[in-house]
Amino acid sequence: MKFDTIIIGGGLSGMTCAIAQAQKGKRVAVVTAGESNLHFHSGSFDLLGYQQGQPVSDPVAAIAALPESHPYHRLGDVEQLAAQACQLLADAGVRTQGDAHHNHFRLSPIGKLVPTWLTMEDMFSVDSAEELKGKKIGLVNIVGFLDFAVPYLADALRDMGAEVTVRSFTTPLLENARRSPSEMRATNIAKYLDDDNHVKEVADRLNSITPRYCELLLLPAILGIANNRAVKLLKESVKTPLRFVATIPPSVPGTRIQSLLRRRFQQLGGTLLPNDTVKGGGFENNRLKYVCTEHLADTRLEANDFVLATGSFLGGGLSSDYYSVRESVFGLDVELNGAASRVDWTTDKLFDKQPYESFGVKADNQFRVSKDGTTIDNLYAIGSVLSGNDPQHLADATGVDLLTALAVL
């Protein structure tokens, strides 16, 4: 089978790149193993959240101070790419609010305000903690749902000056789901509540338990696994304004993002090869000619260009043992950013910056990768498989995913 572009990996970076290429009229295929880091998604997209441990106010301006090895320095006009990313998400049905020049704050699952660039429109966010002073908030959870840390959230909101009332509710449907502990996960609950009658039942319960003085209800993000229809219906049916807060994974907002991006890609004529992995390929004259997958072992997938979007260690794009770090599919060249010795990969304190977090595939200014010191002219790397970014300490992972995906080819 022959395509213009084959993308290896179906997470945020892979699907963004696939949609961008399909919009240009190219024949695009995506090979994806299935789940991705989107299943851990917060409902927000970070461009650049921190520098030297301090929150960043203007991400675009702050990028200039990043190390030269950071992928952002190879992008060109970051502000323009950020605008393109917003539009691509919106066209796919992922509606967000935010500004690349002004970070706002999302509420983490344990109650920390985290600086971020874009937040899905139904998720809770504030421009600053000052907005919470004196705010009368109802914090509501489902009885038996343990992936929403109500005590932490309530204490954190009160510390920021909010007046918090804690409530819980259930319905016959949700009470029945509690009989199986595995069903009380966010994505499973979202499937139960993907019915208008069940959503209205939840709305009736919320209306009955909400104090009249509440200005805002905060609920766990457990509605809208494929689209925002159930979310919209609940908001219309509840008398008090409400917003959602990310839960412990699996993430309903992330699953929705993945579903919407895949749908958009297929609407544009793209070919999705799900539940499959690329096992290798054939190189000739410094070009990748074809790849083979686990399930299509006897079929060569050929393309003019290939894009590697397999993620870092968590996504399986990188692997390691006690002696080396490897790119998992093709054995591409990897940059360790000066940490040549094994003892230099980590530091003693768990929460300190860990050198291995910035390891990744070596790429030139066009994001072309190399193998055994030779540049592969038609194989590109995007997202967290690239070296140079530090998602834990910079809060830049989704920004790198989106913007590098739009910059290649």
UniProtKB/TrEMBL annotation:
InterPro entries noted in UniProt: FAD-dep_OxRdtase_2_FAD-bd, FAD/NAD-bd_sf, G3P_DH_GlpB_su
Domain FAD-dependent oxidoreductase 2 FAD-binding: 4-388
The protein's Enzyme Commission number: 1.1.5.3
Gene3D superfamilies assigned to the protein according to its UniProt record, in alphabetical order: FAD/NAD(P)-binding domain
GO molecular function terms listed in the Swiss-Prot or TrEMBL record: glycerol-3-phosphate dehydrogenase (quinone) activity
NCBIfam families linked: glycerol3P_GlpB, PRK05329.1-2, PRK05329.1-3
Name of the protein described by the UniProt record: Glycerol-3-phosphate dehydrogenase subunit GlpB
Taxonomic classification: Bacteria, Pseudomonadati, Bacteroidota, Bacteroidia, Bacteroidales
Gene: glpB
